[in-house]
Amino acid sequence: MHSPSSQMADGQLVSDGMVAIAKKQRVQDFFFHRITQAFSLLVLAALLGIIISLFVNAWPTFQKFGFQFIWRIEWDIINQDFGAAIAIVGTIASATIAMLLAVPLAFGIAVFLTETCPAWLRRPLGTSIELLAAVPSIIYGMFGLFVFAPLFADYIQMPLKHLLGGMPIVGFLFGGATNGMGILAAGIVLAFMVLPFVAAVMRDVFEITPAILRESAYGLGCTTWEVVRQVVLPYTQKGVIGGVMLGLGRALGETMAVTFVIGNANRMPTSLFSPGTSIASVLANEFGEAEGFHFSTLFALGFLLFVITFVVLAAAKAMIIRAEKAKGT
Amino acid sequence: MNTKRNFVKTLAMTAIATLAISSAFAADITGAGATFPFPIYAKWAEAYKAATGNGLNYQSIGSSGGIRQIKAKTVTFGATDAPVSGDDLAKDGMVQFPAIIGGTVPVLNIDGIKPGELRISGPVLADMFIGNITKWNDAKIAALNPGKKLPDLEITVVHRADGSGTTFNFTDYLSAVSKDFSDKVGKGAAVKWPAASSVGGKGNEGVAANVNRVKGALGYVEYAYVKKNNMTFMKMLNADGKYVEPDDKTFASAAAGADWFSVPGMGISMVNAKGADSWPISTASFILMYKEPTDKAASAEALKFFEWAFKNGKKMAEDLDYVPLPDKLTDQIRSRVFSQIQK
Asked: Could you tell me if B126 lies within 8 Å of chain A, comparing CB atoms?
């Protein structure tokens, strides 16, 4: 390894130089390897540090309430009586609504852009979607509160309440005050926010489907839908799930935009129009003035958000692995 | 190679020189805390810098944050809307004094009701915020407003979503006038609002935006925001049984009757103050400093700043709809509080 060229019969002159270069390269490679490794370990250290510090600060809360903290319906700062259920329900409900709205829309956008869009429109449309992804969340919040909420109250909440509010079984979902704020409003604003992420990722992965596969399918007489369903989607499944998870991650953790429109009420929501709260908005609202035990419960909430996000990502990974196994057999 | 080395050397020298210079000029006073007085502290700081060349860096991170920072000794003074108790002050070796006075005002949004048109009393207001009264045409509200036609409209309670001194002052008042409120809700920087219709807004701006947007909304904001956003305020029944409008005169009247030194740390509550012209939800914002500061120079600078502001900052305070402390009180603060701080 040290001087393989020295055994060459006629390479004696060159070999010293080559050995020197090889040695130098080995050293360089060694340092390059170590340095990049250190960088990636830094990420791991930061992650561990965050988990540990969250947990340590949250410990008094977990010690007092135990696992019950997760499903207790209470948030009373003065009497120091806390439970995470209200915020967890708000977080998951608003994120679910957002995904239900955003994923089909994003799918439609991506299919249009990759399959049926005229070439001259592809660039401007694609760029504007990417631009939408770059809008800061506070802008979505302001848009949500000042523009969307009044329109939502008059033109969506009122008709929905009149149309569906009286129906059995689902009627309760559309009851309550129609003031433009609440779980549904937050979900819709979140859908606007995650839509560009999901659409951009879907478009990118749809584009990598080899043209030969696609064209063969078209050649067999498939319709556009059949091509998307039978060829593009199976080929890009992993990327599509990845994009959806990216969007979901953002929806779960979004703070400012949700704080503006969710209503910030520490009560269990009873309908889609009820004001509620999400973990991230509770943290944003209450950290400034939190003291002692209250401070610790906020860390506990943060820890739970971390766990929820982790579970969601793990579930996505598991889904991908299972799908691949199914394909392999 | 040589030039490169020289360049590095120069760079290093410059860096060291810059550091040295900036530390020599780092006489800026630092403070942190309450958001309520932030506009006036910022204004005073700007004028003080223009007059003396010394800067003040005030971070409005919230009252509890201010108390945390001063306890951690990362700032020269802390600022809080909810006064710290005398015992806690003694334990930490701190002094406390008021710096500015203002008021919290209930506001509403009903078509056709003009600012100051609706009259309300503390107990009825408490019932509305608890959720015992849910409609604007409730008999209890009508009884205070004879002859006024009130709509059959649901009350949407708008409160602060973030912890805030404004909420402390407001709940302090409601707890003082209503036993029901004191039992069910209590006073604090953030409380559990029981009304089924309640929504939270972030900051005074958030509450103001929600109240101005939702028909039938009822909220509370600092007086400055009432003026800035042209909000419909209520006339309130005060402790002397008179209806008063919020303005600097009624806030000053509430402060005039206050016996500041009756409580250690001057932490009196001005809510529901006596006096025919007193606004019932008037409040002072307080400053916290150490008696034996670790950085005596910075502490002395901060005192100089407040002395200057008490003397020269009155007009600025009035322009921003605060009430400056009366001369008699600032003299007392100088002689009885500032004197306790080691220079």
From this structure: no
